[in-house]
Each structure stands twice: as C-alpha cells, then as structure tokens.
Amino acid sequence: MDHIESFTPEFDRFILGNAPLKRLATGFTWVEGPVWFGDVDCLLFNDIPANTIHRWNEGAGITAFRKPSNFANGQTRDRLGRLITCEHGSRSVTRTEHDGRITTLASHHEGKRLNSPNDVVVARDGSIWFTDPHYGIVSNFEGHDAPQELPCNVYRITPDGTLNAMITDFNCPNGLAFSPDEKHLYVAETGRRFHEDPCHIRRFNVAADFALSGGEIFHEISPGKSDGFRMDTDGNLWSSALDGVHCLSPEAKLLGKILVPEKVSNICFGGRAKHILFITATTSLYSISLNRNGAQTP
C-alpha cells in the first residue's frame, strides 16, 4: 500500500489492507477543523480563507453549513452535543445551540481581546480548553490583520463560564487533546508566524482538579510540524504532519504514517464506530478506515 509507511508490527494491526485512502472532496483553499456528528451522520469542516463551514455526508456530498463563518477554525462538540467553534474573525469561542442560536463563550481576557482561537477540546467536567495563537490576526488570509493584545496562551472556560489562562509559556500553541483517561494534556507548539521558533508537541500532567504540571517535550514531528491531532482509545496520538498523519504511542514512539499527497492540517475520528479517520489537508478532505477507534466524546 503506497499510502502506508509502517515502522512497527503494532501499526500493521491498525491498518486494514483493503481500506483505501479516499479523497472525498477537493477544490478548497485551506481546510481545517473537522468534527463528526454521528447523530446526523455528517462531518463539518472549515475552509478558513473562504469563510465557510462545510458539511460532508456520504450521500449528499458537500453542502454549505454556515457562510460567513467568521473564519472558523478548530471545532469540537460539548457534552450535550453542541458545536463549539474557534472563530478567527470574531476572535472568540462560540457555541451553536440546539435551536441554531450562536452563543459567545469567550472573546476577552482581563479586558483585552483574544488573538484568534485556533483549536478546542472539551473535558469530562464540561470545561472547554482552547489555544489562542496569533495566526488569524497577522494577515488577512485567515481573518483580519489586527494588533495583538494578549500573549498566545492556552485557556480553560470553566463550567460556570470563567475564563482562565492555564498555560502561558508558548510562542503559539495550536492543536490540543486529552489522553483518554484525562491524566495528560497534549499541546502543539507551532511557533510564531514569520519566526523560526522551535516546534514540537508538549505533554502536561493533569490533576483531579485540572491543575497542570510538567509540560516536557513529548515529540517533534518531522517533516513539518504538528498542527492538529486526536487520540485513539488506547492513548495513541494521531497527528497532522507535512507528509500525512503520524501515529505516536503513549511513549512517543513513531509507530507509522498514513501518507497524504497534501499538507495535513487536522484530523478527527468518525463513522458509526469512530473507526474512520477524517483528514483535512490543504485543498482536500480525505478519509481512511482503520482498525482503531477514536477516543473523543460525545
């Protein structure tokens, strides 16, 4: 299989020999933020520069879900199944209610505007964690060129709506994910735009009250850098990379790669058993069925 590069027998067991890498749609500008809605059997994903959230369904193909999208980027679902979206244009994190109304959850910290919320996850207590790099305000390509008012932090919105800066020593944090037991939080450092900053994935220890410690370098993706990633149920981390998707063990060992002909931005698990890996990559949306199950909820 020319789309698979395996380094371990373990990864061989993750791959189904008769499951191809499919290009589901193409012709976009820069796609990001895939999130699966199993209850309505569809995937949402964003073309950030086109200011559009697209919907993909196996029967209907691609349809528009929201335009304009406020240059939406990373997305997830909360514990009640509502869409949580990072918006570059509004410099905020929003929630789409079940009736379609949009609620702003965070737009300012200590009286200053957020930069451009990028990626987001929801913890077991319902708290919402997101990264806030400057990528959406350094040009007009993925948002609006504007002054930066805050450092590029990782934030937590508590269940009562309080916004706290949880990690403050990143140049530009990007993708993030909890381990299945939520004892670790992984965060990608992708560096400031127009700077040669170090790029890697860091791992933090998470206490019962969600206090963080540690933060050591977990892995450096090569080639390219880690943008977005998700976990499977055994704690393996599946990360975007320049040449495709890299699978890392909980011990940071590179198990194997799914090679994709475009630069990968983000991924998510979906399908009826969360066994399909959906991949957003530059101008296209891809998928591949795996002998794996995604850990994200709901």
Strand fraction band?
A: over 45%
**Terminal Cα separation, in Å?**
32 Å
Alpha plus pi helix count:
1
Give the C-alpha Rg.
Answer: 18 Å
How would you state the average pLDDT, rounded? 97
Count of individual beta strands: 27
What's the overall geometry? globular
Structural class, from helix and strand content? mainly beta
User: What summary fits the major beta sheet?
Assistant: 5 strands, antiparallel
**Element pattern in H and E:** EHEEEEEEEEEEEEEEEEEEEEEEEEEE
Instruction: Work out the helicity level.
Output: under 10%
In terms of per-residue confidence, which ranges show pLDDT below 50 for 5 or more consecutive residues?
none
Strand order of the largest sheet: 1-24-23-22-21
Q: How would you describe this structure to a colleague?
A:
Strand 13 and strand 14 form a beta hairpin. The model has no long low-confidence stretch (mean pLDDT 97). A five-stranded antiparallel beta sheet has the order 1-24-23-22-21. A four-stranded antiparallel beta sheet has the order 2-27-26-25, with no helix packed on it. The two termini are 32 Å apart. 2% of the residues lie in helices and 47% in strands. It has 298 residues and is mainly β.
